[in-house]
Amino acid sequence: MDKDAKNRLIEAAMPLFPAKGYAGVSIREIAEAAHVNSAAISYYFGGKEGLYEAVLDVLFSQIDDAIHTVDVLQEEPQEFIQRFAMMVLNIHMHNPYIMLYLYQELSHPSPYLEQIIQKHIRKAFNTIYIAISKGISAGIFKKDINIEHAVMSLAGIINFYFFMTPVRKIVLKNYADNEKEYVQQAISIFLNGIRRNCDEKKHT
C-alpha cells in the first residue's frame, strides 16, 4: 500500500462528506478522488465509518493544537481572549470544512457528535471559562456576569460569521469580506460588554 494513501483518502473525503452527506458518498467515489484502490479504505480505516471518524478527528484536533499554543494561566485574560479568537479565525480561514461538519453534526447527529464535543470543543469551552474567571477575580471583568453565558456568547460571535457566509453573500451584496476586521471588532464589542467600568471599580 502507498504510505501516502491514508492521508490522500482523508483529504479526498473531507469535501465529499459535507457536500453529499455521509450516506450519499460511496467508497468507490472517495477512492477515485484519492487515486487509490477502494480496498485501501478498509485497510486503513476499517470502512467508510472509520474514515469519517478520521476526518472529524483531523478537523477538530486543530482546536486542540490552537489551545496548546497559549497558556491561559500566564496571559492576561483580555489578551488571551483576543489571541484565542484570532486562532479560531485562522482555523476557519485555512479549513472552511470544519464549520460544515459541525453544522452537519448538529443537524443530523452521528455517533461521533458527543466525541467531538467531549474531546475537542469542551477543551476550548473550559479554556475560555478559565480566562473569564481569571478576569473576574482580577477585577477586570464584571463580577456578576454568568460565565457560561459569556463563553457561549463568545463562541457565537466568532463562529456565527462563518455559519452565515451563504446568507451574508446574498443579503449584503456590497459587503467586502474582511474576516480579520470582523473578529477584531466583534471581540472588542464582547470585551467592552464584560469589562468593568470605572463606576463599578469605585464602589468596590
TrEMBL record:
DNA-binding region: 26-45
A GO BP entry: regulation of DNA-templated transcription
Domain of life of the organism encoding this protein: Bacteria
Keyword DNA-binding: yes
InterPro entries (alphabetical): DNA-bd_HTH_TetR-type_CS (IPR023772), Homeodomain-like_sf (IPR009057), HTH-type_TetR-like_transc_reg (IPR050109), HTH_TetR (IPR001647), Tet_transcr_reg_TetR-rel_C_sf (IPR036271)
Domain HTH tetR-type: 3-63
Keywords: DNA-binding
PROSITE patterns: HTH_TETR_1, HTH_TETR_2
Gene Ontology MF term list: DNA binding
Protein's UniProt name: Transcriptional regulator, TetR family
Taxon lineage: Bacteria, Bacillati, Bacillota, Negativicutes, Veillonellales
